[in-house]
Structure formats: structure tokens, C-alpha cells
Amino acid sequence: MELFLNPSQSLFQALSNISPVGIFQADSEGRYVYVNQRWCEMAGMTPAAAHGQGWTAALDPADRERVSAEWARAVGNKTRFESKFRFKCADGTVTWVYGQAVKHGTAGQEPEGYIGTVTDLTGVIENETELRTAKEQYQLLFELNPLPGWVFDVETHAFLEVNQMAVRHYGYSREEFLRMRLEDMRPAEEALRLEESLKYLPPGLKRAGVWIHRKKDGTLIDAELFNYGIQFHGRPARLVLANDVTDRKRYEESLQDTARFAALAETASIFAHEVANPLNGISTILQVLLRGDEVKNSSSREMLQDALNEIGRLAGLLQEFRTFARPETITPEPLDIRDVIKEVLSTESIEYAEKRIAVEQEFSTDELRLNGDRQKLKQVLLNLFKNAVEAMPHGGTLKIRSYESGGRVLVEVSDTGTGIKDGTKIFDPFTTTKSFGTGLGLPVVKKIVNAHRGSVSYQTQQNRGTVFTLSFPTEDEFPRNRFSGDSG
């Protein structure tokens, strides 16, 4: 199988046999005349079997026709040969190789032919396959994940990557996300908690709990977070998946409220039996005394009248309590919340002007439709407007803003008043920040909103004002039939 016989042939064969790549020689017709030991190892073929066109039998059947054609074309055109293909041994072993050959010899001086090499690419191909598989898994687990996800830098807290669901759910573009840090999508009150949480990051999975996140449009949501430690472009990072549990929390809170209202209803029944009847009796006695001549002293009669007035107030409070404790039943109808807001403002505008209250309205251009009980919603709005006005005894600005976000209709009622003291449980019955009133106004608001499958929240700053936010499902999300708020 020796084609080129010259003094250096023995040296060539010696070097060829220790070469880490396969080496072959062919004559001018493309027939193999020499293969080295490494070529035989990769092809699973003896030198004798490779002679002539025998080498093509070592090719994987799926590549044989293509590679044979490429080789014939290169020989026919006397050009360089290059190809990536597979050897398949008799035992089934497949070896990916890169083959190349160049024309050798000069016409009239020495025999012409080709000399070439084949390089084992199995490791490279396997790495490419692993990389492709990893990319497919990355796309499946991250890019196509139904949950919002992102990667953040452990040291800087900067976003390094986000998936499409995060972009869609939070409203920020990918470019905006990559200019942000974790702190930028959280309210200020969670800054300290975030700082403490980031101090303890295990190498594996961490269930970070439920956090408040701010969308681009300002909407606050409750997000349950899971994160996992990874290396991202050589830097320590965490892969995060976020599950929006806002609706779930609203439902859980609604169930808790239902249980509380059930207890209140029972309490109200007992209270009415034990207190209402004695109050009525005392009221009757006081009225008889005031109508008779037994008490003639004017100061004593004034005291009796004061006592009667107080009993009347207590009876009214008892009636409010009994009403509050009953299940909230609503009759939804299709409506535009903007119309309801304007109806309430139209009846109160004169009073607001007298109290030096400027009213501002800001609505999105589209209809803000939902299924709601018009009268109950007017009660909610009137209560919030009334509280806002009372928080501005020296005048100020009442602003009503309404818009749609994330499949929900939101109404913001803000004032420039005194604010609410920290720690005040304003939605608990009989809790009030005023020197007058029963403390049932905001609990009633929450109860009505819950019956609409909605939520109410607030943000406040001392001496700067308060913003109440109502959130309702859109018309498509809420049934139009009669609905009782205690049915869960």
C-alpha cells in the first residue's frame, strides 16, 4: 500500500503511526493507498479493507452517499476536500470526524494524489449536543415557563435575565428589567426585609415566601417566590420563579372575614336580646318622666333628655352592628364604574365646594366595565369620599382615579389630609380615628368590596394624605346573578 516511495517514506510512516489524528493517502483517481493506525481505530477497519474505495464501507450509512459524492467531486475538480461525517464500526460505535484532504505531488515530477487527515470530533459533537439540549431545557424551563422568572446578581441585586412571562405579567420591557435592581420593584416598607433575606441564600433551592411586588403601572401584587443558586456568566446568581397569589390571598382573607362575620352575627343576636330590650325599657321610662310633672327642675330634665339621647345613639349603634353582621347580599348588573363615581360626586359637589375641597377626576379613555351592585358601590364610594373630606378640615384635594390593569378595574381615592396613624386597624369594627362616628364605615366598605370578589387597600403618610385603592374583577370575570358575600 505504498504509493510514494522515496527516502523519507519510512520517516513519514513513523510519524504517521504516532499521530493523534487519522492520516490517509489516495492516488489521483481518489483510491485510498494508505491509512495510519489512528484512522483504522476511528473507522474500525483494517488498512487492507480501506484500500481503493473500500474506505466508504466505514462511513455511517446515513452519511455514505453524501460523503462519497463530496469526495468524488473534489477529486474530479482537483480541489480541496472538507467534510464532517460519521464512522460506524461493526460493533455499532459511532465516531464523528472532520475530514480534509489536499492535492499532493506535481505532474511529471512525482506521483500525484491526495493526502488528508480525519480528526475525532466526538467530544465536540457531544458538547454541542449537550449545549443544544441545555438550551432546549433552558427555553422549556425558563423562557417558556408559565410563571414569571428572572435571574439576579447576588452581589449587586441587578436583573441579569428575565423571561417573557415576567415581561408580560409585570409590564416592564426586557430592557427596562435589565436596568433595574430587585429593590426597584418593591415598596419601600419591604426594603429591610429584602436586605435581611438576601443575607442568607443557600446553595440550592430557597422558598423565599410571599412578597409585595410593584408592576410598571403601580399595581401591587402578592408574589410567592422560589429561587435557586446558579452561576450566570461566571457570576454568583439566583434563578427566581414568581407565582402571583394575589387572588388566592384575597380568597383566603374573604374566608377569614366570613368566619368573623359569622361570629359577629351570633354576637349581635345575643347582644340584641340582652341589651336591646332593656334599652327600650329604659327609654320608655325616661320618656314618661319627661312627659310628666314629676321632674320639674330644668337641669334635671336636661340630664334626662341627655340620657334619652344617649340611649337613642346606643340603639342606633346596635342596629348598625346588627346590619353589619348580616351576610352581604348584592345584585350585580353591568355598569361602568366611571358613571357610578360621577353620580356620587354630583350629589356631594356643593358640600365639597363649601368645605374648600377641590375635586380631581382621572379616568382611562376606555370603558371601565364590571358587574356590580350600583347602590352598594355608591355606598362604598360615598363612605370613602366622606372620610377623605373629613381628613381635610381646612380644605385640600380629593382625587379619584380609575383604570384597568391585569384584568381588573381599579379605583383610587386619595386626599391631602392628615393621614392615618401607624398600627391603626381601620378595617376592624368600631375602630375609628375620629372623635365621632361608630367605626363601622370602613369595615362595611371592605365587606361590600369582598362581596364583589374585590379587595381594598390603602397607603398613608402622616400629614400628607391617604390613598385607598379598590380592585374589582372586570365584567367578564364576575357573574351577573345574585350573590351573597358569605358563600366563600
Short description:
With 488 residues, the chain is α+β, with helices and mostly antiparallel strands.
Topology at a glance:
Layout: H1 9-17, E1 22-27, E2 32-35, H2 37-43, H3 47-50, H4 61-77, E3 81-88, E4 94-104, E5 113-120, H5 122-143, E6 149-153, E7 159-162, H6 164-170, H7 174-177, H8 191-197, E8 205-214, E9 220-232, E10 235-244, H9 246-291, H10 298-325, E11 329-330, E12 333-336, H11 337-354, E13 357-363, E14 369-372, H12 374-390, E15 396-405, E16 408-414, H13 441-451, E17 455-461, E18 465-473, E19 483-484
Parallel strand pairs: 13-15
Antiparallel strand pairs: 1-2, 1-5, 3-4, 4-5, 6-7, 6-10, 8-9, 9-10, 11-19, 12-14, 15-16, 16-18, 17-18
